[in-house]
Amino acid sequence: MKTRIGILGLGGVGGYFGGLLAKAYFESDIIEIIFIARGETQKAIAKNGLKIIADTNEIIVFPSLVSNNPDEIGKLDYLICATKTYDIETSFESIINCITPNTIILPLYNGVDATERIQILFPENIVLQGCVYIVSMIESPGIIKKIGLYEKLFFGSKNAPASKLNELQSIFENANIESYLVENIEETVWEKFVFISALASATSYLNQNIGGILNHPENKAVYISLLNEITAVAFAKGLALPNDIVAQTIIKLEKTPKDATSSMHRDLLAGRNTEVVSLTEYVVKAGQKYGVATPMYKMILDKLRRDQA
């Protein structure tokens, strides 16, 4: 029996890492990679494959199957989810029959509440925690563009069998994915959340890319204020983040391409729905829960709500 891995959400994250898996296991006798897609994306990949454009090369990959039909997809052993956070619940509707109680689900979202939300939908399943660091986006249906060399995937679980975690890690490693199976996965996910939440909120509020944040003192001050507020919330929650998490996060940003921006900022500019609830509002509500003031986050949340009204 082949190990069957579904990729739900073929945007910058799911498309890129799913593409590496499809490349590694093309016509494999032991692993089957299924892209779960519909509409123009499904048509483009079925006809031309998924193209991944990087700084120095580009590849075209074909999964074992690209479909949104649960009868075609069948039962899944693993499901890697990378849709937008506002689509978490609805994204499972068409494939609910493909998920058995033994299906292991790995969420790769920008927020920190995905595992909890998915666990409510599938209480019998093992739902891992995970996050990625990468700058990538959809250039057009079936085409993913990746910027820069930085790409890392972290995952783990407090209750999943070690055999399953090690199996998934081996699957990633054999696909040349820089992945890390970590014990303190909640802290790791929150370290990423500190990075992406502050960046998404700052770039969207200031209408600036990363260079525009780092190279202008007044913009950088806004960003640092956000970092201080979200880390205060994390510490109040009881998370064991590094004491120098703010400095570490700034260094991470300085290593990111300066002409890049957050996916939330890109969505805002394109007039699309944004992840403001998961990336900005969540921090304000968590601050209220743990008695931590978040005035910069609150000001930005109010402005983004007005802009999207």
From TrEMBL:
Protein name, entry field: 2-dehydropantoate 2-reductase
Q: Where is the Ketopantoate reductase N-terminal domain?
A: 5-157
Pathway(s) this gene product operates in, as recorded in its UniProt entry: Cofactor biosynthesis; (R)-pantothenate biosynthesis; (R)-pantoate from 3-methyl-2-oxobutanoate: step 2/2
Q: Which reaction does it catalyse?
A: (R)-pantoate + NADP(+) = 2-dehydropantoate + NADPH + H(+)
Q: Which positions fall inside the Ketopantoate reductase C-terminal domain?
A: 184-305
Q: Which PANTHER family match?
A: 2-DEHYDROPANTOATE 2-REDUCTASE, PROBABLE 2-DEHYDROPANTOATE 2-REDUCTASE
Q: Name one GO biological process term.
A: pantothenate biosynthetic process
Which keywords describe this protein according to UniProt?
Answer: NADP, Oxidoreductase, Pantothenate biosynthesis
Would the keyword Oxidoreductase be found if you checked this record's keyword annotation?
A: yes
InterPro entries assigned:
6-PGluconate_DH-like_C_sf, 6PGD_dom2, ApbA, KPA_reductase, KPR-Related, KPR_N, NAD(P)-bd_dom_sf
Q: What class of enzyme is it?
A: oxidoreductase
List the GO molecular function terms: 2-dehydropantoate 2-reductase activity
One GO CC term on file: cytoplasm
